[in-house]
Write a structure and sequence with these properties.
The chain is an alpha/beta fold. 27% of the residues lie in helices and 26% in strands. The protein contains five helices and 14 strands. The protein has an eight-stranded mixed β-sheet, with helices on both faces.
């Protein structure tokens, strides 16, 4: 049982992103996803409780952290989220990328509402900035970078490949196959994989409890780094 004043991340600067992004099509429509931001916000609250200085780059959601010490940077598009994360990364000790950032954005954004005067509408999309890959490329040895993988098949293999490809220290795997896990739920079932291929599987639990499992893994890595 942890003490109430247990603050293993005291003084650490922690950057988190959370929520979806919105990629505009025209003045009234956008492409987005089902992310609620609950997991990232749970991480922000838990990290603040653990004593960290927390900055949260937050996409458009309906909830905010309960801890008033969390600094919130509101963004909407993948471009604005990547710009905020990349500019702040050099000043942080730990970054946790929990946001569901759009992988693609429209090539053309229409200035006026697209009228329904044609039989079909073909949208051309272009890739967005890969925040995890960009931060992984610029990461220094003292920083810890945590990513998420939401998979539907070959979960472990895909997550391990992502960890290596993006130079992450930890990857948190969610499976859409698990009932009660993933977008919108108050619960999550996670698997944590680190660079040494240690795999920790957890039962379904609240996102607040899952957040502490992730932070406890980070604390364990920091303790090993300081030996």
């Amino acid at each position: 049982c942890k003490k109430k004043n247990y603050q293993p991340l005291k003084g650490k600067h922690l950057l988190i992103n959370a929520g979806p992004t919105r990629e505009p099509l025209d003045p009234v429509r956008f492409i987005s996803n089902y992310s609620s931001g609950k997991m990232g916000i749970a991480l922000a609250d838990a990290a603040a409780e653990y004593g960290a200085i927390v900055e949260l780059v937050l996409g458009p959601v309906n909830i905010i952290p309960q801890n008033s010490s969390v600094r919130i940077i509101n963004v909407s598009t993948s471009e604005s989220m990547s710009a905020e994360c990349i500019s702040r990364f050099q000043f942080c000790d730990i970054a946790i990328l929990a946001a569901a950032v759009a992988d693609f954005t429209p090539v053309e954004v229409y200035g006026k509402k697209i009228k329904r005067d044609q039989s079909e509408l073909i949208l051309k999309l272009k890739p967005t900035t890969d925040i995890a890959e960009t931060l992984g490329t610029n990461k220094n040895p003292s920083q810890i970078l945590v990513g998420f993988a939401l998979e539907t098949d070959n979960e472990l293999e895909n997550a391990k490949a992502k960890l290596i490809r993006k130079n992450l220290d930890i990857i948190v795997l969610n499976s859409l196959k698990e009932a009660g896990a993933g977008f919108g739920h108050d619960t999550n079932k996670i698997t944590i994989i680190d660079r040494n291929n240690n795999i920790d599987k957890f039962e379904l639990k609240s996102k607040e409890e899952a957040a502490k499992d992730i932070l406890n893994k980070i604390v364990a890595i920091i303790q090993k780094m300081s030996i």
